[in-house]
Specification:
Elements (H helix, E strand, L loop, with lengths): L23 H7 L4 H7 L15 H17 L5 E2 L1 H9 L5 H15 L4 E2 L24 H19 L4 H8 L3 H11 L2
Parallel strand pairs: 1-2
């Protein structure tokens, strides 16, 4: 590289790692992302689906974060009950791994027992619905349509790596409608 104001290049050894939830190829096509920068960054691409698409990763990540926090705080490592794991796996995790890590931190602040059950999850966290009837099994057309709509929106967001403009196109609805539905369903 050549520092600004210098005439001789200086040899450096760096590796740049970037992350985004946007479709950069689409950004290059529509002019919102520089093509030259894209080709400098896109040497090796690793597409990692949203956490909500990888529920089997949640117990492993929870245990990892709990271990780190317990070690840092010099506390015993609590375990998650199967019911708590199911509750965590059913959640949509719009904040992905960072949201999960913050949740484990919050649990460790307020809980000092050996086991973490679904009752120990923060109050704003939706409790397990194991005893409730599935909206698909209900005869309520309103509940069934809402569940199907939520599923389709989640899938469209997953397929477009969170790009709401593209998701709206895939769903054939307006961006404003998509934003309303995302808020309505807590996605």
């Amino acid at each position: 590289m050549r520092p600004v104001g210098e005439t001789k290049p200086t040899k450096i050894d760096v590796r740049i790692v970037t992350a985004t939830a946007c479709d950069l190829k689409q950004g290059v096509q529509d002019g919102s992302f520089r093509e030259d920068l894209y080709y400098r960054l896109a040497v090796v691409e690793i597409n990692l689906p949203a956490l909500r698409s990888r529920p089997d990763d949640i117990p492993v990540l929870c245990n990892h974060f709990l271990h780190l926090i317990a070690q840092r705080e010099q506390r015993p490592l609590p375990s998650l009950t199967p019911e708590a794991i199911t509750t965590l796996q059913d959640y949509q995790w719009s904040g992905n791994v960072r949201e999960l890590e913050n949740m484990m931190e919050k649990i460790m602040i307020f809980h000092h027992g050996e086991q973490i059950t679904s009752e120990h999850l923060p109050q704003e966290f939706p409790q397990t619905q194991l005893n409730q009837q599935s909206p698909y099994e209900s005869l309520s057309l309103k509940l069934s349509i809402a569940a199907l709509e939520k599923h389709h929106i989640t899938e469209a967001l997953n397929q477009t790596a969170g790009n709401r403009v593209q998701a709206a196109k895939v769903l054939e609805i307006s961006l404003r409608s998509l934003h309303y539905k995302i808020k309505e369903y807590g996605l």
